[in-house]
Design a protein that fits this description.
The chain is of the alpha+beta class. It is built from two helices and two strands, in the order H-H-E-E. It starts with 17 loop residues before the first helix and ends in a 16-residue tail after the last strand.
């Protein structure tokens, strides 16, 4: 008669069931879907703040150029050439330095002469801000 070996019962190490794994994955996906729009809103607010700061700096430099040279700049590139701007700033909304909309006016010089120059700058974006105003009106 053969004798059977009495081994203690083998136990598999404790593990997670498929149901538990699916529940955890579902909770992670729900949390991510809630966080994603909040993150996008925060990023847009940061870009809007950067645009406000950039516009303020550009307007200050346009005014300083006008006071120093007794005439407004003809272009943003002229401001770079004369050292008033390090480089034409990148619009945080369009992410380009080519799309700035500039307001120009005739600036009176001595006598009857006048010169066309930049008096203001705006974003070239056609999007609307979180406040409901177009970026191009800032």
């Amino acid at each position: 008669m053969m004798r059977r070996c009495n081994h203690p019962e083998r136990r598999d190490p404790p593990a997670f069931s498929l149901l538990e794994m699916m529940m955890v994955l579902t909770l992670i996906l729900i949390a991510a879907s809630i966080a994603q729009p909040i993150y996008q809103n925060i990023m847009l607010r940061a870009r809007e703040a950067a645009l406000r700061d950039t516009l303020y700096s550009m307007r200050v430099m346009i005014d300083r150029f006008t006071l120093d040279n007794k005439r407004p700049p003809e272009s943003l590139d002229e401001m770079v050439e004369k050292g008033y701007l390090g480089d034409v700033p990148i619009d945080p909304i369009t992410r380009s330095n080519e799309g700035w909309q500039v307001e120009t006016e005739d600036f009176p010089l001595a006598g009857n002469e006048s010169v066309l120059g930049i008096v203001n700058a705006h974003s070239g974006s056609d999007q609307t801000s979180l406040e409901g105003t177009p970026y191009s009106s800032w």
